[in-house]
Amino acid sequence: MTRTADEPVVPPGDGGLVRVRFDLAYDGTDFSGWARQPERRTVCGVLEDTLSMVLREDVQLTVAGRTDAGVHASGQVAHADLPSTVDFEKFPHRLARALPADVRVFSARVVPPEFDARFSALRRHYEYRVTDAVHGAHPLRRLDTLSWPRKLSLDAINEASALLLGEHDFCAFCKRREGATTIRELQRLEWRRDGDVLTAHVSADAFCHSMVRSLVGALLAVGEGRKPASWPATLLSLHERSSQVTVAPPHGLCLVRVDYPADADLAARSELTRRVRTL
Questions:
Q1: Is 26 annotated as a binding residue?
Q2: CATH 3.30.70.660 placement within the chain
Q3: pLDDT tens digits, residue range 81-110?
Q4: In terms of C-beta density within 10 A (0-12 exposed, 13-18 middle, 19 or more buried), how is residue 232 classed?
């Protein structure tokens, strides 16, 4: 299939195409991120190759959020336009027999042609896990939890997090991409402690490249006392990426959920998301 994700789906029946939503998860440890890269193992590459093999035709996926190398997902969403003759109820079982153990498709279901995994999304939800235990991460969680060598103040981190909420230009916390805006609405940034493990719950309408890990890196500096709680918010006035912000390692980060509007609002949401935002 050579159509783009923006083209309408062929009406179902007689070998036509339908738009299919995939809900999936993966352990990002051994992947070089989502996007296809030459000579590298990526989530998109593995999934598209497997789908193409099972269906015996080329399949192209559109994803809700392109995760970086080493980042995990427990609630990723993607879509593709596939033949209407496929039994989608049984499709996850067919894929389970062909996919490697570190990526799984939980469901495949037909959605309206206006659905777009990327542009229809209302918000994305991430979690970042870090432990300040003196012994480091639990052996069974070492691949999804960052070990931090110093004690962290939950109160200081949450005080600093609250000052970052709202719509801002987050260019100080992003790797800029040509033609892309860095204006985002940060809707939730809250940390919770369970024993020696702190988990950041981060939600926004969208995220720019490396934004969550950069926010985490800045807040960890506050949590260990190197920076005051007011410091991360002062970076919002910058017009370029801040060299003072350390990007947190990828393995503590996981995409846990993507929210979408009701079917009747999908087209309007996609149109709104495609607009270039300004403050």
A1: no
A2: 123-257
A3: 999 999 999 999 999 999 999 999 999 999
A4: buried
Average pLDDT score over the chain: 93
C-alpha span between 191 and 177 (Å, rounded): 29
Structure tokens at 39: 């000579």
Q: Measuring CA to CA, which residue among 98, 71, 75, 85 is closest to residue 21? A: 75
CATH 3.40.50.11030 fits 123-257, yes or no: no
What residue ranges of the chain are covered by domains with CATH 3.30.70.580? Answer: 17-120
pLDDT band at 175 (very low <50, low <70, confident <90, very high): confident
Catalytic-role residue among 23, 30, 68, 132: 68
Nearest 5°: phi and psi at 99? -85, 155
- Integer Cα distance of 259 and 80 in angstroms: 18
Question: Could you tell me which CATH class the domain 17-120 is placed in?
Answer: alpha beta
Please write the tens of the pLDDT for every residue from 126-135. 999 999 999 9
Pairing of strands 103-111, 72-83: unpaired
Provide the token pair at 229.
């709680």
Is 132 among the catalytic positions? no
Cβ 256 vs Cβ 144: under 8 Å: no
pLDDT at 258 over 90: yes
Question: What would the mean pLDDT of 236-257 be, rounded to a whole number?
Answer: 96
